[in-house]
Amino acid sequence: MRVTHHIQKQVHHKLRLQHHTHTGRLLHHRHTSYRGLAIVLVLAGMCMGGLAIMQRAAADELLGVAATVRAPVPILPATITIPEDGTRIVSNNTTVAGSCPIITPQVIVEVDVDGQTAGTATCDANNDFAMPLNLPAGTHELTTRTFTITDDTGPASDPVHFTVAGTRTAATNADDQLASVVPYLSLSPSRTVTWNGTVPVSPGTHILIVNWGDTHQDTYNLAAGSQQISHQYSQTRGYNAVFIYQDSSGNYHQQQYAVAAYTTATGQDVATLASADTATPSKTTLLGIYGLYITMLALFGIVRLHATPFAFTELTLHHHAQA
Questions:
Q1: Of 1, 101, 245, 272, which has the fewest beta carbons less than 10 angstroms from its beta carbon?
Q2: How many CA atoms lie within 13 Å of 235's alpha carbon, on the beta-carbon side?
């Protein structure tokens, strides 16, 4: 009897048969262990997680959307308080000043003299602006326009008329005005600003003096034609850069350009979808694919190792009692 029981235990062990803990009845092969089922569920979850990571990484790589959020456009113009309408100024050098429309982010104010852009100015902490001017003798008309940091323009101000009684005219000859590609300068993330403009053709020796608005001043000996000069600031904020174009006789013309430290806007909304054909898979995408591959291999291996417990085979054991 003891030999038969020993043989029975060996048969059960060989065939991987098990008895119920409480009833002692023989369990069929289709009775799966909870441990094996838990392993399969965990691996299935890892597989789904790998698919999710790969899908998200692929979406980040293959679908890139960039947008310029439009800054609010003011409904009120910047107003000129200095000089007042109808006044008479003795000096050729004056300052145009006024108040900016209250809006966030602040606008950039462009000052036009007799229909031509004379320069731009940033709005200060008190929401005011100021810009130096040197004008020839005669009657002039001043107006302002506002620019948002995304290059949208606000309404123009009412014109202000005033008379300059000075005598200097050579310094503000129309041929001596600098021509800038853009009305204001944009400060890049590296705190570098670049002015692109044209130096006028004038007789004699001319120099360009630039006061960058941060206590730095540079002098350039520039030939006539298109020019490009750059400056790097130590802080990221708005500045007023004054350009003085001066001849050998001391006559000069100055223009101020606002430096917008918070924009790299092009003035256009951008919505770009990157093509899947040209997108390069990132490390995250490759890691997701690799993890999915390993997970599937592991799942396949576990299923193969536990193939017997999942199968169902009818088995009948006959016990013969000894006489």
A1: 1
A2: 8
Backbone angles phi, psi at 318, to 5 degrees: -110, 130
pLDDT at 305: 56
Name 243's Cβ contacts closer than 8 Å, sequence gap at least 6. 178, 195, 208, 209, 210, 254, 255, 256, 257
Could you tell me which of 161, 172, 111 has the C-alpha nearest to residue 137? Answer: 172
Give the tens place of pLDDT for each residue, 113-143: 998 888 999 999 899 999 998 888 889 999 9
Q: Are 127 and 106 in contact (CB under 8 A)?
A: yes
Query: What residue type is assigned to position 78 of the chain?
Result: A
- What per-residue confidence (pLDDT) applies to 62? 47
Spatial separation of the C-alpha atoms in residues 9 and 14, rounded to whole Å: 8
Mean pLDDT of the chain: 74
Look up tokens 């003795």; give the residue: 90
Torsion region of 193: left, alpha or beta (phi above 0 gives left; psi -120 to 50 gives alpha)? beta
What is the CB neighbour count within 10 angstroms for residue 238? Answer: 18
Q: What distance in Å separates the CA atoms of residue 294 and residue 315, rounded to the nearest whole number?
A: 37
- Residue type, position 9, single letter: K
- Of 224, 225, 188, 227, residue with least CA distance to 210: 227
The reported pTM is 0.58
Whether 36 and 304 have beta carbons less than 8 Å apart is answered as no
**Identity of residue 257:** Y
Distance between terminal CA atoms of the chain?
11
* Nearest residue to 134 (alpha-carbon basis) of 212, 48, 250: 250
**217, β-bridge pairs:** 211
Q: How far apart are CA 102 and CA 89, in angstroms?
A: 30
- Say which residue, 52 or 130, is predicted with more confidence: 130
Amino acid of residue 247 = D
